[in-house]
Amino acid sequence: MLAKRIVPCLDIKDGKTVKGINFVNFRDAGDPVELGAQYSREGADELVYLDITASHEGRKTFTELVKKVAANISIPFTVGGGINELQDVDRLLSAGADKVSINSAALRNPQLIDEIAKNFGNQVCVVAIDANYENGDWLCYLNGGRVPTEKHLFQWAAEAESRGTGEILFTSMTHDGVKDGYANEALRTLAEKLHIPVIASGGAGKMEHFRDTFAEGKVDAVLAASVFHFGEIGISDLKQYLHQEGINVRI
Question: Residues 11, 88, 176, 220: which is the catalytic one?
């Protein structure tokens, strides 16, 4: 049985790590290279870096940041934000990233998933989905949670899998930054419908939330940000706790 993964997420804005609540109200959380190196030392299994503004100039800055991260950490990391074509993927992988995460671009042009999988392999492509629970359904959003679409979470995730993505990263906008637990029911439905790893995002507030989303949500990995960035939960402490709770993690 594969070990479950703990994945700190670093949202990057103007070269700094930031964290918001429900996708707004961002505050500074520190230097992304130093934080990444710290998490690598503490036993994180992977990292995710998201360029949350991803303007054209931001993408150039972000490429330099990816090179610095690659030189300073020893664990795999995924990068996302502003990836719209194969050239962007090639640029970020060449800078040292292990995987790329696509979200809005995949919703606008689903064929991009096929192209990335064909040219770089399924394992390189992570499809991130930001969805909000509205009127009894999960609706997918574009542009960092700003623009609603007519796509539904479970159908879109299944289509992404059929096109060749290697993983689904689902962020519940409803739960993001609230620290009241993950969307375990929706995550479990995803895990049961798909044949690829599901990563949970949005809702970590205490160690029990990680345990519950592994046990109840049936996910393969859990992503979190502010509880790590602001020292509320230590990664090594979390892994010891999960191990004691019967969750298979790398200690």
Answer: 11
Q: Is the dihedral of CA 144, 146, 147, 153 positive or negative?
A: positive
Average pLDDT over residues 65-77: 96
Mean pLDDT for the chain overall: 92
Which DSSP string corresponds to the chain?
Answer: -PPBEEEEEEEEETTEEEEEETTEEEEEEE-HHHHHHHHHHHT-S-EEEEESS--HHHHHHHHHHHHHHHHH--S-EEEESS--SHHHHHHHHHTT-SEEEESHHHHH-THHHHHHHHHH-GGGEEEEEEEEEETTEEEEEETTTTEEEEEEHHHHHHHHHHHT-SEEEEEETTTTTT-S---HHHHHHHHHH-SS-EEEES---SHHHHHHHHHTT--SEEEE-HHHHTTSS-HHHHHHHHHHTT--B--
Higher per-residue confidence, 179 vs 164? 164
The amino acid occupying position 219 is V
pLDDT at 236: 96
Q: What is the pTM of this model?
A: 0.93
**Could you say which of 51, 88, 130, 176 is catalytic?**
130
- 130 is an active site residue: yes
Task: Convert the pLDDT of each residue in 74-96 to its tens digit.
Answer: 999 999 988 999 999 999 999 99
